[in-house]
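Collaboration report, partner site 2.

Our partner group contributed sequences for two proteins of shared interest, and the home lab folded both. The records are reproduced in the order in which they were received, starting with the first partner submission.
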Amino acid sequence: MRINRLLVIGLLSYWVIGLAGCAKRDIKNIDSKGRNIICFGDSITFGYGVNPGEDYPSMLAKKLNVPVINAGIDGDTSIEALRRLEADVLSRDPLLVIVEFGGNDFLRNVPLETTVRIMREIVDSAQKKGAMVAIADISAGMFMRDYRVALREVAKEKGAIFIPSILSGIITNPSMKSDFLHPNVPGYKLVAENILRSIKPYLNKEIISKN
């Protein structure tokens, strides 16, 4: 019985490792030679509600051995983001681009089809530049569920990393927010942790800080 149990455990471990390897190979530009991680987004990326240096890209930078650039602009929709993609992302030697848009599209009634089309264009452009891409989802439960479903499909289709529910543990917790939506300092720290958890398997060991 013990031998059979060990055999099952061994086979399961092999299966899990195999699945992880397949998933890693599915991500485009996994061997990216870029130098910078670019956080490309709206107010959640910008760090609305906290001081400079307390935003999630700054907190992410403390965990990594490569520069992390905050390319977030408060209030941006995906439409506005596309206009600044070249200057703020493609021209900055991206290793990984973390794309976080959709909240303002939702609030301003930008059609979901438009948001999805633009997100595809952003992902395509970053990948053509040789960068990995991660799509960050800000949905929570039924709130923006249709965006979560659509963006997950874009990530799968394009070979991008999908980071689900970066506001998990924040959106329903007033002690983690500076207003009805935006995180406070502990909230942005949690956002950084949520994002790092998803991108860490795709980064070289040299990139990940030991701190």
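Second partner submission, folded after the first:
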Amino acid sequence: MKFVPTATAALALAATMLAASPAFADPTGDWRVADGTATVRIKKCGAALCGFVVTTSTPAGKDDHNPDPSKRGRSVIGLEVLINLQKAGENVWAGTTYNAEDGQTYSAKISLQSEQALQIQGCVLNGGPCGSETWNRVK
């Protein structure tokens, strides 16, 4: 799962979020990440939403870049990558995301673009650059 930080992507996402959009069902379910390498299951976690890696297209790697050395040997399968997402508007939830590829945590916003498309935005904490991608619902 990669987020390529660009100002253009952040501006495009902001414009999309400001445009009037129909209300969709919540984003719970399975989503294939943009590059097709993993599937993330979004589910309710108490009052929030969270997302866990449930499959990978290649043998599952390890969380080698985790800043906590005790977590570096764990599989990415079962790894929580969307954390404490709270409703932040119509079809929008905000929280944090963990990226095992670099071991970093980012602020996150997810927004349903349709019943089949979910936009994910990750931003470096404390106002840094952002990037986004679209995930597709797995049937």
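Feedback sent to the partner group on the second submission included the following. The chain has one domain: 7-16+26-137. Residues 22 and 90 are 8 Å apart (CA to CA).
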